[in-house]
Amino acid sequence: MRKQLKTIIHEILESSESSNFYSLADDIFITCLILINVAAFIASTSPHLLHEHKVLLEHIEIISSLVFTIEYVLRLWVCTVDRRYSHPLWGRFRYSLTPLSIIDLISILPFYALLLFPNLSFVNLIRLLRLLRLLKMSRYSESVRTLGAVLYAKKEELIATAFAVFILLIFASSVMYFVEYEAHPKAFGSILDSMWWGVVTLTTVGYGDIYPITPLGKLLGAMLAFLGIGIFALPAGIIASGFSEEVQRRKQERIGANLDQSANCQSVQMLGEVEIGFEQQQRAIALYVESSADLMQMCINSAKQKLGSHIENEEVLRDLAIHLYNETVRKFQL
Question: Can you tell me the distance from the alpha carbon of 298 to that of 304, in angstroms, rounded to the nearest whole number?
């Protein structure tokens, strides 16, 4: 009974299948609770809203934290249903180290940390960890899982692009430092100061707080701005192509699953037809054998009635009966 209950709870929490009503209800409930909790956290940063709805915001945090805690404990309890975590102790320990399980744990730690140590010096940092509850939606949102799959699949290209941007940033900032230092020492007093200008220029934000004033510096700045447009378009193109590939892959998987299901249905139908045909053939053979046996018996009786008194040899009577049978079959095409 206990094992069956664990299996049912595991399917509800881990399957995320729309065909399972309880799993679908759990996904919708947790997703809504995450959104409500994050909205309450954002609202609590407003002094006016915090003063007007302090009790409501606190109740939302308490209820959501308790629900997330129960969910985390249940996941740890039923994870042994999965063969990968079947060991009662080490299996649960391995499960607790998975990325999604770590996110679940971090999302509930701020509530208990502030409850036990309300006077911590880094309270705001701990409260900020509540925003990580948004990452819990990766369990329930297909789009978030797709984004994660795309980033993981394109990690090498994205790392290469980031490295190229980093090299370009260091090179441009260093050159701009040597070009602008004498004319504009306050803005370009070091390569580190120049790197702020490089970041702003490469990202095409252009705050305008630091800018070159020499002709050569302006030329380099313009060139870097144009390079920034192309450089930062690369990650967008990589992610877009990754999304396209992932969508096509999932479409092919769905088509393959539908084809497999259709093939299985056709196989079952054909097997049923073969079984029906075999049964009909068996009946036809049985009827033919029965009719043939009746005909042979009639031929034997006819031979005995006509020649039984003149021929004593049974083999001659049998051969004569077979001859009569063959002639009857040939004549009437039986």
Answer: 10
